[in-house]
User: Fold these one by one.
Assistant:
Number 1:
Amino acid sequence: MSETKQSKWDISDMDSWTAEDFPLGAVIPDSGNSRDYVTGGWRSERPIRNVDTCIECLLCWIVCPDTAIRVADEKLAPDPDTFNLDHCKGCGVCANECPVEAITMVPEGCELPEVK
Amino acid sequence: MPTQTTVASTGNTVVAEAMRQCAPDVVAAYPITPQTTIVEEFAKFVAQGKVHTEYVCTESEHSAMSACIGASAAGARVMTATASQGLALMWEELYIASGMRLPIVMANANRALSAPINIHCDHSDIMGARDAGWIVLFAETAQEAYDNTIMATRIAEDPEVLLPAMSCLDGFITTHSIDRVQVMDDESVSEFVGDYEPQNALLDVDNPVSHGNFAGLGGPYFEFKKAQRLAIDRSKAVIGRVGEAYSELSGRSFGFIETDMMDDAEVAIVVIGSSAGNARHVAKQMRAEGVKAGLVKVRCFRPFPAAELAEALKGAKAVAVLDRSETFGAEGGPLYTETRSALYDLETRVPIVNYVYGLGGSDVRLELMRSVYTDLSDIATGAAEPSGLQYLGAR
């Protein structure tokens, strides 16, 4: 998918960079790389879509403050690719704005045994 | 060799002259006593077409440093000047300038901080900002203020460094007194500082970059801070090299510290700025009276010359560190605590006493300096060291 394409500035091994490796003064030396910067880890709730209720109006795609709703051929991408969880921060705007209440927010991490 | 003209001038006038000779692309500033005449004279140079600088009159020092940061990120050579409350108002931008690795050069006319309101000299302003990641040079005289401004430009812009640098001169004492100064010809200064070649300039449209980015939540903020530490550590070698080159050019020496009569000194004063003059004068008097007195003047405070101080002071029997700022509740003034720490690894313990002096421009008379050397002589011959911080000349 084009949205996962790396920018010219390859940060894929950034976690192993030392203080000497980062660009001077915290500049970002290339454009179009926020897609490479995975921010979905901030999320405490994730959106779930009810495909039976959804009317494919794409209002969720319009209101998403990030680029976390995937659309192809004027339709929402089918499960499990509907939401780009690398960038969805769980703000819930999509669920709030959905005219048919087809999106619900569920707590993240509930599948983990220690928080059951 | 440069053509040097001897002029009678205030510190501020020659700082403005040095700025003109360094030809900054942008100066953004706000006036504040006792710095005002620096930017006033510089603005006059701009108005007269003697320097081609974009001069920005801002509405505060917060805005002045913000404008400097923007201009420097754009790729300009940037200078400014401030003092006291102005420096305090710049506080958050000081850290941004150094974190973004922008080689802004700023003159700071050392002045006390309110309250109560006071416009006269002490070092509380810069000492509050000493850990902001700037290189900090101090001047004793107008000559050193001129020289430091030129050296600061080349040091800050060195590709090994790329950190902002501050050139400090004592409010009124150095900023406003007429002093004898040798000023170099424009071409020699211009050649010495060279052209600034910015890295990651916002105006380099062929190589777009984004400045002021986020590095939190598990991001590399920690690594960026370490990179700043590595840069200011590297700056020591650069400052040394630039100081040597400047000495060769101008015939005036520069050291991280400057020592007088320290070869066999038994008692020594460590001091910053204009008060070194009185200390030197009294040290010479004491020498004539048979006391082996010496003086260490710190000219570069950041990076801190710990090794140089340890080397200079290791043979002394008693040392006084004079701080012109208060660090309420701390063990002592900033120069004292760091000098004392610098002496920790010496094999022989050197007795060291801290004096806070001259706050808010309180006069530092010769007899006060003499009392310090007398105290030290007593300690050197067996008297007990006074415990805790001493106030020099306060009732």
Note: The helical segments of chain A are 59-63, 93-97.
Number 2:
Amino acid sequence: MVLGALGKRYRDGEVIIRQGEPGDCMYVVQAGQVEVVQHTEQGEQHLAYLQAGDFFGEMAVFERQVRSATVRAAGEAKVLKVDKKTLLRRIKEDPLLAVNLLQTMSHRIRELDGQLAKHEERAR
Amino acid sequence: MNRHSQQTVADAFSSLAGNKSDDLSLSDGSRVAVVGGGPAGSFFAFFLLKMAQAIDLELEVDIYDPRSFSRCGPAGCNHCGGIVSESLVQILAAEGINLPPEVVQRGIESYVIHMDVGSVAIESPAGEQRIAALYRGNGPREGGDAPWDSFDGYLQGMATERGARVLRKLITAMEWRDGRPWLQFADRSQDRYDLVAVASGVNSNLLKMLADLPAEFQPPRTTRTYICEFKAGEDGVQNILGNAVHVFLLAIPRLEFAAIIPKGEFATVVMVGEDLDQELVHEFLNDPVVRGCFPTDAVPCVCSCSPLINMGARKRPYADRVVLVGDCGVTRLYKDGIGAAYRTAKAAASTAVFMGVSEEAFRKNFWPACRAIATDNAIGRVMFASTGTLKRFRFLRRVIHRMTAREQAQPGRRPHMSSMMWNMFTGSAPYTDICRGAMHPGFIGNFAANLALGAWPASQRREVS
């Protein structure tokens, strides 16, 4: 792990956010990678690996909902916390800041659409 | 620059009717010059191109800067303490701009306030490293084959990845012809642009191009700072300073404050005050409190400079087809200059792309961002004046020390003084927020209680307890 990376250091397997818990910040991976998993009735389901530069937990910034998934370090990782207040305050001053977040969220919706279509095809 | 061209720039700033062109907006093929390739210039070029590309607008952007940030020492340096504030680190991350480990010399996790009455560490409220200590250039003299990257070089790289060109040409003059700004260069060539963004800071000779302007366009007031790099080795810096910025609140006349910032194998000493001279620098470096923290007499100072910093705001940092971003226009008082560069550069870029490049467009859409910083600075001046008063009286310094130490020792307590000190010295919050915190009844009550406790002789307190 490089000394200079910002954020908090997490050990392999350490949970960063837990599904069902309330949240008031989003996170940006600075170094290493993290795994996103969701707990369902069928057990734990792997959703994605996120790398340096990817963010997660942004839904808690825009809606008062509990975390929809658990994110944990996959190997040693450094992750930066972005406070809801800091972010929303800046978005109020500069609404264009939200565009970058919207682009990523839009990309995720597109991916989910693709996955849903595949599931439906398989179900037929 | 000759008198004739100075007058033409002044005319441009005055928005004389004869100099106005019909179409004051950017269109496909428009040419934009960015004068200065530091953070303000690179942020401006980056956001301008990013926004333009989002709406399929093709622009040609040239960044002019004769310096190369890949060089060690003054030739590749931008003369700055080199701290990216907690709030800016977060905002940049949300922008998708993550400072790579090669650029961040050290992640800061606490600030230690040193006074003659004692020292107290304030831990990062977030409990993580969200402040970046870095080099604007490629590090000080004797940096050798530096394994790190320059912050300014990194930002410039982002702009070039978006399509900007970096030209190492020296600009000698700016003229106004046919309603467009023209840049003249040392090799006697010249080029016409549709927009010129001046991001030259306050230490550049380029600002002389804008001399002799009407009063409202005059450059901001400046003051001199002192920056010195001590080479203590990576282990030495870690052992002596750790991952903490050390701030000194000492009763030294003319010294506003000073800090020692740990970075890789160097420690950067930054001093801010009035009429900083060698005598004041010597007095600070030899103060017993400073020597107790860092052996300034035993560690060699390998690089030093006395750059100017902006102490006010240009009353009008824009005109038709010209906009001034970063330090040469408006910046934050003493702190977070890079944050101000980001905010003003982005505001100018979005104005240019979406609203046009007229004086009116900049007034309506760019100036509010500058005005917000200038208004906050006015409150900052009051806050720093208050800090000056605190520094003068030993019993007040004891109150600060006691309150902060107690809050840090008991994490459950509401950290009134710690938050104020943290935000004041890290530049993470607007001065308005800090002022609001100082008006909080909890802070006032706590401060008064500690003041009374200080007035009560310690011997009597022991008897009672």
Note: The domain at 221-309 of chain B is CATH 3.30.70 (Alpha-Beta Plaits).
